[in-house]
Amino acid sequence: MRVTVRITERWIYRMRRVLATLCLAALSVLIGYKVVFGANGMRVWDGKKAEAYQLQLEIDHMRDEQEKLQRHVDSLRRGEPAAIVKEAREQLGFMMPGEVVLFEQRAKPDPKPPAVANNLDQK
Fold first, then answer.
1. What is the pTM of this model?
2. Distance separating alpha carbons of residues 81 and 28, to the nearest angstrom
3. Which of 19, 28, 31, 106 has the fewest Cβ atoms surrounding its Cβ within 10 A?
């Protein structure tokens, strides 16, 4: 038993640098894995960056829409005739004297669902 312990001690003493290198390599691999795939790793960071970019695009789009609506509100508050006439036509259905209004007729939906119509034809 004592011989086995001495042989093991000598082997460990001679291989100490190799063992230390292997331990550092394993530690480096574990840290690298954590950096890439961990809770706040590179993959999560890339996903958050893409999400932030999409949200910024949405914010820019909404800001443009808000500015457009604000200009429209300002034109209505100033009493611009073109804006008031446009809103009267679109929202209230008004028309100017002497105008002829054309309506587009839409096809009426079939009152029976197609499955029921097919079943009735088969009888």
1. 0.49
2. 73
3. 106
